[in-house]
Amino acid sequence: MQLSILASGSKANALLLREGETRILIDAGLGIRGLIFALQQIGEQPQNINAVFITHEHTDHTRGLDSLLKKAPIPVYAAAGTLKALSPGFMRMQKAFPINGHAVDVGPFNVRAFPILHDAAEPVAYQIHVGHEIVTVATDLGEVPENLHQAFTESTVAVIESNHDEEMLRTGSYPQLLKIRIAGSTGHLSNRQTANVLRDCNSKSLKHVVLAHMSEENNHPMLAHDCARTALDNPEIPVHLTAQRTVGPVLTLS
Ligand SMILES: [Zn+2]
Ligand SMILES: [Zn+2]
Questions:
Q1: Which CATH superfamily is domain 2-252 in?
Q2: Strand, helix or coil at 109?
Q3: Whole-structure pTM value
């Protein structure tokens, strides 16, 4: 199984998982040209994607979706509220399926959705089971609910938001209302909150930590990295950084 972060940050998010002949995309926040370019870098193209899972309707997660579906009629899964929020006619026009309350199988992938708190219609995190690997992807959340906590505990790969350094956000240039939104319970996880999740979930099964959705304004990659690193008991577990404009990491798992 291979996991590739195509883009991650406040401006665009997309992640591809591939196993055998099956590819699933989590979020399509890159514009179509950027998405095609990122896919090319890992030897892929839109037509190879078997399903798209959307976490929520914000444009940094959906910018390329309409154009992608024009290029390839890929089934789209998301919470019912997200499908409705994407556009009124979306569910009628596209192959769109609500994912609430049940798991979805796409080839070898079994995908489950977890409701999360964020200022969107019906945002979710995803957990993907494939072979012996369990990948949990959670970005855009103000706090981590108990069931998602549990999901991280059993994961082999944790893709988790590490959006901001609390001090950088507090003293930074953002307007006060935006600062309150980001730091609030429906906003984004800080480095400290992410470290707490990793510390609590310090599971034996964890093989990789991927820090996602990092703010370019209110965070520094090394701050986020060090905060997560010190939270993990096992120094062997790699902590990967992600970026807005470069593909990576590309992780190959058994
Ligand atoms: Zn986002
Ligand atoms: Zn969002």
A1: Ribonuclease Z/Hydroxyacylglutathione hydrolase-like (3.60.15.10)
A2: strand
A3: 0.97
